[in-house]
């Protein structure tokens, strides 16, 4: 299941001493999904740099800026999925104050919470790790124990999380709407950090005109 391992709770902020949760993939899918990786030309990179995503929620909008120079395959996949409506109706199924909000699982369209965090797009992405820090507002991709197992699930850091650096693919950041992110992460949640009330999203891609 796609989760960060639950950290010990208490007054102390989640920190380096915490053991990371490697997002477990359903075994029935783990070895069936095909890996996707390709090379992009300068024009494609430039177009993705000029493209943004607007995540619409009941609390307002979150605007995302992409880093295709660093993680072109992750950016391209996110844009492709969003344009297909893949993310529409999915939820932020994991909210951890002082850490992250996580979403992008197609299984969250179902009311069956036992499957939330286990889904993906039917393919995986090869890691595009970099030296970019996981800081407040960072957009990064969730994955399983295999570094090359990211799919559709992503997370946004609500605080600096240096212990994630170099282990998850940073592919963008929030350019507007961190107040919305803060509202989402503060929602009452169950024992699996899934908000008690659904926080659905709709993702709209805003691309530059022309080809």
Describe what this molecule looks like in 3D.
The chain contains four helices and ten strands; from the N terminus they run αβαββαββββββαβ. It has 211 residues and is an alpha+beta fold. Strands 4-5-8-7-9-3-2-10 form an eight-stranded antiparallel beta sheet. The longest helix is centred in the middle third of the chain and has 12 residues, at 72-83. It starts with 26 loop residues before the first helix and ends in a 5-residue tail after the last strand.
Question: Descriptors for this entry?
Answer:
globular, eight-stranded antiparallel β-sheet, Cyclophilin, two-stranded parallel ribbon, alpha+beta, 23% strand
Indicate the overall shape: globular
Query: How is the CATH topology named?
Result: Cyclophilin
Largest sheet at a glance?
A: 8 strands, antiparallel
Give a count of the beta strands, DSSP E runs of length 2 or more.
10
Helix residue percentage: 10-25%
Q: Give the helix tally.
A: 4
Question: What would a concise description of this structure say?
Answer:
The protein is built from 4 helices and 10 strands. It has 211 residues and is of the alpha+beta class.
Helices, strands, pairings?
Layout: H1 27-30, E1 34-36, H2 42-49, E2 52-57, E3 60-66, H3 72-83, E4 92-96, E5 100-103, E6 123-125, E7 138-141, E8 154-157, E9 170-176, H4 178-185, E10 202-206
Parallel strand pairs: 1-6
Antiparallel strand pairs: 2-3, 2-10, 3-9, 4-5, 5-8, 7-8, 7-9
